[in-house]
Every structure is written in structure tokens, then in C-alpha cells.
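User: Predict structure, ligand phosphoric acid mono(formamide)ester.
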Amino acid sequence: MPYSSFIDLSVFQAKQIQGIFSTADLIKANSTPSAISNSKNKVGALVFFESSTRTRMSFEIASVKEGYYPILFEGGSKTSLEKGETLEDTILNIAAMEPEYIVIRCGDGLNLKELALKINIPIINAGWGVIEHPTQALLDIYTILQQRQNIASEKILIVGDVKHSRVAHSHFKLAKVLGYELAVCAPGAMLDKQREVKVFETLKQGLDWATVVMALRVQHERHKETIPLEEYKNQFALTKKNLQGTKSDLLIMHPGPVNHGVEMDTDIFFDTRSLILKQVTSGVYIRRAIIRNIMGGAL
Ligand code: CP
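Assistant: Predicted complex:
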């Protein structure tokens, strides 16, 4: 079996990413059955040390539809983590049971790149601390491409908790591979010290520039200081008031989960320009395509 992992977007070339999008298109059009759809007794291990709804369920669905039985390890009670076993030992032991691939969601404490050197089974990053969430960035771009022809012509404004966002950090890398423009807008406490992209001081300036706006969840749990929410909402939230006068074809996105009334109001979630639930639908196509391309040796 060819061996590859999907952890860090900066190691991929545009043609490999386009290959994933092409496979997702074929899956979406239902024009090719899974190459392995008749395989029996093939297992994908899904290891989620952190909570998840979208990523976990879409990997479960993607695994089933690609012909792999998903075995889920949630890392809570009744596992040997309770006895002090390390996260790395846990993964090494799961790998020793020889699943076809391992999907991992974990915090910053586990080094997925080093782990990938220790096991001979593909690892798929399903959200790694604040470091990367590559499958989310891909499904975001795939969703935009359902509406637009050329991603290199798009200007994506990411608003909010950039510093703690693995999604934003994956977009910083993917934008370099695919050539789309990226900018951020957030209070200083939510910006990275090393700024790799353009920063807009006000939401209005950013929205005047953008063709796509993506709000991020305010990650209260990762902030030491309390966020002044009313002030945040006035200046940075996607609300009817703040979006007044924006382009009629502005695309509105959010990777989820949404804090309604904090970074986005419910009427914006349901705005006709909102792609939020379409992002979730794309997640299954993209994760199926990644599994298929990795297992088929195309990555
Ligand atoms: N976007 C995302 O990763 O959502 P979950 O945490 O629910 O998987």
C-alpha cells in the first residue's frame, strides 16, 4: 500500500490539491464508484482526543462511503489514558493494530509530523491544536469553487480569533499553494505576532476589499483575559448592521461551531449569501476524496 500522510498543507503542490478537488467532483457527481467499495474488513481508525461534531461525523460518513469501517477512539473514560498512557503511545498502539489509515484530532502537545515518521500508516490531520486543520481549509475552498470559477481571483477576509484558529493557519498555507488573496481583521489580542497576511483595522475596510468573508469562533477557552463581548460584537461580528451595504455576491462562511450572537448573528447564518451548511456538505466530499487519493496512491 502506498504511504502518504495529510498533515501539513505546505508540503503539497497545487496539482495535488486540484487532484483532491477533481476526485471530490467525481464523488459529488456520483460518476465513479469508490475504487475500494467492494473491499471487506478494511478499517479506518478515527482518534479524537478533542471534541468535534462536523469533522468527526464527516470522517465517519466518508469512511463508510469509501468502504472502510470506522473505529472511533474518543480518548475519554474507560481507556488507558486514565492509567497515564501517553497520547503518543496510544496512537502507536492503535497503529500496531494495522488500520488502513488513522484520522487524528489532538491538541498542540502531540507532534503529528514526528508521529508520522514512527508509523507506517497514513495519518490524516483532523484538527491539530492551533497549528493546522487542513481538511477544513480544503473544504472551504471547494465550497467557494461551487460558486466561483477561479480561486486565484478571490479575496478572503478572515475575521476574529485568528491567533487561536487552526483553520486560519491552514488557510495561510493553502493561499500560498493555490494563489488566493487572504487578509484578516480582528482585535490585537486575536492576531498572531508573526503576521503573514494583510491586516484590516476595521471590518468595513475589510469588507470593501473582500469577495468572501469568513467569521471565526471566539475561542473563549483559549483566552487568558475575558473578551469584552459587546465591544467585539460592535466592531467585528457579522451582523445585519455591520454587513449593511456589502456586495450582493459576497460569500459568507464560518467553519463552525458558531457562537450565535457573538461572532455572527443568526440572521446572517441564514442569509442567502451564507455557505455555512454547504461547507459541511463539502466536508464529506473532500474527506472522501482525501481518503480515496491517499489510499489509491494519488497523494
Ligand atoms: N469545523 C470543525 O472542525 O468543526 P468540529 O470541531 O465540530 O469538527
